[in-house]
From TrEMBL, chain A:
<protein>
    <submittedName>
        <fullName>ABC transporter permease</fullName>
    </submittedName>
</protein>
<feature type="transmembrane region" description="Helical">
    <location>
        <begin position="99"/>
        <end position="122"/>
    </location>
</feature>
<feature type="transmembrane region" description="Helical">
    <location>
        <begin position="271"/>
        <end position="296"/>
    </location>
</feature>
<feature type="transmembrane region" description="Helical">
    <location>
        <begin position="12"/>
        <end position="30"/>
    </location>
</feature>
<dbReference type="InterPro" id="IPR035906">
    <property type="entry name" value="MetI-like_sf"/>
</dbReference>
<keyword id="KW-0813">Transport</keyword>
<dbReference type="InterPro" id="IPR045621">
    <property type="entry name" value="BPD_transp_1_N"/>
</dbReference>
<keyword id="KW-1133">Transmembrane helix</keyword>
<keyword id="KW-1003">Cell membrane</keyword>
UniProtKB/TrEMBL annotation, chain B:
<dbReference type="InterPro" id="IPR035906">
    <property type="entry name" value="MetI-like_sf"/>
</dbReference>
<dbReference type="InterPro" id="IPR050366">
    <property type="entry name" value="BP-dependent_transpt_permease"/>
</dbReference>
<keyword id="KW-0571">Peptide transport</keyword>
<protein>
    <submittedName>
        <fullName>ABC transporter permease</fullName>
    </submittedName>
</protein>
<dbReference type="Pfam" id="PF12911">
    <property type="entry name" value="OppC_N"/>
</dbReference>
<feature type="transmembrane region" description="Helical">
    <location>
        <begin position="74"/>
        <end position="101"/>
    </location>
</feature>
<comment type="similarity">
    <text>Belongs to the binding-protein-dependent transport system permease family.</text>
</comment>
<keyword id="KW-1133">Transmembrane helix</keyword>
<dbReference type="Pfam" id="PF00528">
    <property type="entry name" value="BPD_transp_1"/>
</dbReference>
Amino acid sequence: MPGYVLRRLVQMLLTLIGVSVITFLITHALPADPARQIAGRTASAAQVEQVRHQFGLDLPLPQQYLRYATGLIEGDLGRSYVQRTDVSFLIASRLPATLLLMLGAIFCELLIGLTAGSVAAFRRNTAADQGVMIGALFFVSTPQFLVAYTLLYVFSNWLGWFPLSGYGTFSHLVLPSVALGLLGGGWYARMMRSSTIEVLRQDFVRTARAKGLSRTRIVLVHVLPNGLLPIIAMIGLDIGYFMSGIVVVESVFGWPGIGQLTWQAIQTIDIPIIMGVTLVAACAIVLGNLLADLVAPLIDPRIKLK
Amino acid sequence: MAVLKALFQRKLALLGLIVILAFVILALFAPWIAPYPFDEMHKDGLTDFGSPLPPSAKYWLGTDTLGRDLLSRLIFGAQATLIVAIIANTIAVAIGTLVGVTAGYLRGPGGSALMRFTDLMTAFPALLLAILLAAMFNPSLWIVVIVIAMVNWVQVARVTYTETISLSEREFITAERSLGAGAPRILFRHLLPHLVPTITVYATLGIATTSLTEATLSFLGIGVQPPTPSWGNMVNENQTYFEVAPWLVFFPSGCIALLALSFNLIGDALRDILDPTLRGRH
């Protein structure tokens, strides 16, 4: 176990170095002038030159990467010229709101996805099953802004149950969480259905039935816990999808998190912020995968660490 | 042909096929089908207070914030949306297949380096990477195509890699090799034909993904640029009027959902038809 964890940590470190190289190459080696992009679209020629010198963009590429990587290790994600603030500070100040939304969203995703998926599996090949599967495919195929705007229209504009936008109370959290929950729930429902069907055809379920156990007991003790196993690995992988989803959902609902920060940065083409958010999101994904891999054998003893 | 026949027998896939065909016809013949030019600002296209008109007999789906006919813009918008989705996906599938097959066929340090790079790409949230790439350039239709292709090839690479590995261990490849066939013959005559079903499935599902990425990028303002209409940038242009004129948001985003859903329906059906190991399990 310790050897495995150590190897995974080294692997994670290598991945993070790779991630930093790719973001660096995108922002520095593409045929677009990075100094102009970093300084912002409205900067004067003199400002662009100042940025070029200050960021060492006149140095050779490998030297530039070393400067950039040293900064990253010290937690320096660069500076936003549009907002005149450090990117790491901006991201840190938006992090609590996004983490809160993430909790709400994962709760809704699991609630919607697992319920719908297991119902479809138990009622396999019925109208309920088909309805759930078409619904799941619909949410998998829907642009995030359609779901967000529909919820906003029905529950805020029309019924007036929830505030239009903002942050601070529980009722502000509901709609954005449900929006992300419906979008992600579609994936979970599809996964949960096939994993439950897989469990239902196992010998131990037939044995349990033959022993005369009640249907409730079979479902709760034998089927669902086993059907859930593949889902746990998915929660770790889900972070990437979540980080993409929040850009749209937070901007529609005016939720002051990292997604809205990204959206604002896109409007002003604020490259350092977009770059910082991409890096932080990649770190979150790598960490989420590691956690999922480490937790999986604790829950399912059949998975051995190699 | 047998595949097409099996596809036609599935109601939902057939429905998806009809929807896609309808969108393609709308896009191809937009100038003849659309009731008005997409950029004409009608004098009677706004209310006295300057807000968009709701659906009526003259403007079937209403008008947008500049008094332009929404239906005409939706019909012309199908052009950019379909061009980006289909071309970006074709490039992505080509890159993915090239990387996957090369890595699977070569193995060794070269192959594993390619796959490590592919794994590295999965550490990025695709949308954020696309945003970063798109923001580095002055956006245009072709930049959007390239950006989307750059972030969406990864899954195809992983799938074709695994398939190539298992195929190249099969007897018929070994037999071919012992007969003295060179790499090109094995690759093009034997490996690729066996990969066609998998590639078809992922190419179909991939169009759903690329059209959603295009829609989101355009919604964020860094995708297809006005005056060229795309369903995503129409939502972007009109979202400030959402409370007064919700149809301006719902019609274009509904079209995107319908398009992506149709491709997913066909992709799912193709997977069931082409992958016998899954038969009866779903």
